[in-house]
Design brief:
It holds the Pfam family AsnC_trans_reg. GO terms for molecular function: sequence-specific DNA binding. It is built from five helices and four strands. It has a four-stranded antiparallel sheet, with helices on one face. The protein is elongated, with a radius of gyration of 20 Å. The protein is of the alpha+beta class. The protein has helices spanning 5-16, 22-26, 33-45, 78-89, 115-128; strands spanning 65-73, 94-99, 106-112, 132-139. The protein folds into two domains: 5-45, Winged helix-like DNA-binding domain superfamily/Winged helix DNA-binding domain (Arc Repressor Mutant, subunit A, Orthogonal Bundle), CATH 1.10.10; 58-139, Alpha-Beta Plaits.
Length: 158
Amino acid sequence: MNLDRFDRQLLNLVQEDAGRTAEQLAEHVALSPSAIQRRLRRMREEGVIVRHTAIVDPQRIGRPTFFIVSLQVERERPELLTQLRKWLAAQEHVQQAFYVTGEADFVLVVSAPDTETYDALMGRLVAENPNVSKFVTNVALGVVKRGLSVPIPLLEEE
C-alpha cells in the first residue's frame, strides 16, 4: 500500500493515542474528519493498522515484574521453530517474542505478577518444547522506556 504524507501523519498520531477522534486528528492533519475516517478505515482494511490497544500503567495494577529472556534452541528445523512460535504466541505472559541473530535464537519480554508465575511459565516452556536447550533470564529493575510505536517518516524515502 502506498502511504502519502497524510497517511503517515495519521499513523504517527494514532500510535501516540488511538483514542483521538477524527475531529481531534483533523486539528493536526489538513484533512476533514470524514476524509480522516476513510483513510483510517482503508489502512485497517489493508492491514497497515493491525489493532488498537490500551497501554496500562504497571504501577497502578500491582507492579508486575518484567523478565527479559534469551532463549536457545537445539535445532532450527522449520517445524520445530513453528511449534515454538505458536506456543510463545499463545502465552498471555509473553508480551513480545523476537527471532534474532547472535548467541540467542529468541528474545522474549515476559510480564508476570511474581517470580513464581514466571518460574511456572518457564517450566512449562521447557517441558512442552523439548527443542529448547537453554534460557537466560534478566529481571528488569526498572522501566526506562516502553512502547510499540514504529517511527514513520513523513516523506517517502527514495
